[in-house]
Amino acid sequence: MKTFEEKWTSWLDGQLSGRELAEFEASLPDKAAAEAEKADARRLGVFLKRELGAPALTNEEFFSHQLRDRIRQSSAPSAPREAKASTWWTIPRLLWTGTASLAVFLVFTIFVIRDKNPAEESQYLTQILNARVDPVVSPNATVSMFEVKQDRVTVLWTEGLQSLPADYAAK
Amino acid sequence: MQTEATLAQADVSDLDLVTRCQGGDTEAFDELITRYRTRVFGMIYNMVHSEQDAWDLAQDSFLKAWKSIKRFRGRSSFYTWIYRIVMNVTIDWLRKKQVKGGGSEFDDSIQLKEIEPASKTVPKSEALPHEMIERREVRARIDKAIAQLSPEQRAVILMKEIEEMQYHEIAEALGCSIGTVMSRLFYARKKLQNLLRDVYENI
Question: Is the domain of B23 the same as that of B99?
Fold first, then answer.
């Protein structure tokens, strides 16, 4: 079953005949308007045909020459190039890269851990830093800390203490 | 410049040349290119409105044709077959361009070049400067109107009105049914009538 668009196009291009043509023309509500539109569409066709000249292919021989080159290139064996390309990211190469990356990561991690080893901190310092000076008992207390990393020495300087914190005990 | 060989080949049918191409004869394909390059280029140009793009797409189409020439079974004419490739390449390119939104569809620079808008269909005569300007304006209007059609509608209207191809040939070239061709033609004509009526009624 043809749609209206298909029948209209067939009618406009003179492709309908016989019973199909009669039926279609009988179905048109305004035949005069349809005929006018048909004439208009034909004018459009003639107009397009006349005006739509493409620019001439000026370098015809060069066109063919370029195409011949492309055909030759496309026909040339490309196996060596493919083989070379395919050897670059092989599985062994990927494994090697992964292992090397992991080794570098581990070396850096060990350096960082060694540099920040908490076991090297003084037990006293830890204790005192954890203790609090009661402001009621020692209102003028000041605590200063000096650290010389090069010699691995930490000095804790306290002033104005009325009494030592109860939980401090020299070991 | 035609050589004796090419003159002799003028009598050879497309089908014979295709058979030779299928055996790897590049000279036979060269002859087919010579026969159809102008029409193919012209068809693509009317679709894309750019000489450079039309050149590249015509090259790609012929190259694709060469690569798939062994699949040509001879059920249709070589011309219809290559048109199918041309249409696939061009419509695909137009769709990609639309997706990318790459600039204006209409290439204004073309208007500045030496193009005879009616060079293929009307006997050439020395046009007066004002006639040249008028022609260019008309051509610009047509190009802008065609740019508003979908790639498929463009293909259908150009193949019907310019190439004067039959419905079944267009359907074959586009890989769709005859009904679809007629339907696309219906909407393409309606659109162009609305957009260009004032131009073609005054000429």
Answer: yes
B42/A47 touch (CB, cutoff 8 Å), yes or no = no
**Residue B41 belongs to a domain:** yes
In terms of DSSP H, where are the helices of chain A? 4-12, 18-27, 31-51, 60-75, 79-86, 91-115, 123-130
Q: Are residues B96 and B153 in the same domain?
A: no
Inter-residue contact B60 to B180 (CB < 8 Å): no
pLDDT digits (tens, 9 = 90+) for B82-116: 999 999 999 999 988 877 765 444 443 333 344 34
**A60-81: average pLDDT:** 79
pLDDT digits (tens, 9 = 90+) for A133-165: 677 777 777 777 777 766 777 777 777 777 666
Contact call for A56 and B67, based on CB within 8 A = no
Give whole-number Cα distances, B95 to A28, A51, B78, B106, B141, in Å: 37, 26, 26, 15, 22
Chain B residues with CB under 8 Å of A47 CB are 196, 199-200, 203
Q: Which domain holds residue B191?
A: 148-203
A16 touches B: beta carbon within 8 Å:
no
Find, in chain A, the residue whose alpha carbon is nearest to that of B164. A49
Per-window interface: B 50-79 vs A, CB < 8 A: 51, 54-55, 58-59, 62-63, 66-67
CATH of residue B170: 1.10.10.10
- Encode pLDDT of A9-52 as tens digits: 999 998 888 888 999 999 988 889 999 999 999 999 999 988 88
Count of pairs with CB atoms under 8 A, one residue in A, one in B: 123
**Which residue, B103, B128, B162, sits at the end of a domain?**
B103
Q: Are B33 and A67 in contact (CB under 8 A)?
A: yes
Asked if ipTM goes beyond 0.85, one says no
**B151-161 and B78-100 are packed helices; what angle lies between their axes, rounded to 10 degrees?**
150
Query: How many structural domains are present in chain B?
Result: 2
Q: Is residue B112 part of a domain?
A: no
